[in-house]
């Protein structure tokens, strides 16, 4: 259900809604921070049987989102969880995590939620055409860079940055791992007669 078929009440662009919908369609478990239009999009787009958990700081936003889900005739169950201590009551892994809650907590949410993201899954950061939110996403990438498979900043005209997770990659000095001689990586002169050269 993409494009004009996605119905929602709230503050996200059509491009953002479509990217969220496509990503949600392939996820069995979804975690989001910030109830609202995105919750409506996720509830319409996730596959049957998929679990959606929404973390929110303000109870009135939860009630407003529930009311909008009813207005739109969306019957899918969404589990709403208070932000405070959510990392103790919510268990991963999730294939999709969306970070769009209150600005001052977005970086903390990303740090707390990243360990819950499945390898191969993605974390999406909203509003990354704004410098502050782009910095939040990129600082997070810098912090977990050995677990990052890819970063797409605002793809497809969206206002979202998509960070895909991989299994942790430890730094390896390939010269040592490959048993290369010092001359092979440019730290000494090659041996005389190499490749038939005359000394």
Structural write-up:
The chain is an alpha/beta fold and 199 residues long. The protein has a single domain (3-171), classed as Vaccinia Virus protein VP39 (Rossmann fold), CATH 3.40.50.150. Helix content is 32%, strand content 22%. The protein contains 7 helices and 7 strands. It has helices at residues 14-25, 37-45, 59-71, 86-89, 106-113, 131-143, 174-177; strands at residues 29-33, 51-56, 79-82, 94-99, 117-126, 148-153, 160-165. A 7-stranded mixed β-sheet has the order 3-2-1-4-5-7-6, sandwiched between helices. A hairpin with a 6-residue loop joins strand 6 and strand 7 (160-165). The model has no long low-confidence stretch (mean pLDDT 93).
List keywords for this structure.
single chain; 199 residues; alpha/beta; Rossmann fold; 7-stranded mixed β-sheet; 7 strands; 32% helix; 22% strand
């Amino acid at each position: 259900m993409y494009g004009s078929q996605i119905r929602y009440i709230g503050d996200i662009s059509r491009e953002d809604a479509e990217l969220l919908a496509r990503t949600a369609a392939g996820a069995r478990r979804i975690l989001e921070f910030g109830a609202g239009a995105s919750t409506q999009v996720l509830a319409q787009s996730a596959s049957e049987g998929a679990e959606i958990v929404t973390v929110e700081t303000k109870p009135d936003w939860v009630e407003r989102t529930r009311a909008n889900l009813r207005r739109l005739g969306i019957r899918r169950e969404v589990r709403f969880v208070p932000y405070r201590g959510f990392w103790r009551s919510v268990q991963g892994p999730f294939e999709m995590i969306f970070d769009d809650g209150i600005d001052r907590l977005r970086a903390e949410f990303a740090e707390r939620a990243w360990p819950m993201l499945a390898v191969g899954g993605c974390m999406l950061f909203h509003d990354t055409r704004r410098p502050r939110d782009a910095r939040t996403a990129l600082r997070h990438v810098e912090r977990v860079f050995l677990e990052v498979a890819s970063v797409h900043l605002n793809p497809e005209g969206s206002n979202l940055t998509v960070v895909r997770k991989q299994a942790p990659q430890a730094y390896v000095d390939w010269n040592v791992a490959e048993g290369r001689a010092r001359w092979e990586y440019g730290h000494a002169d090659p041996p005389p007669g190499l490749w038939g050269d005359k000394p």
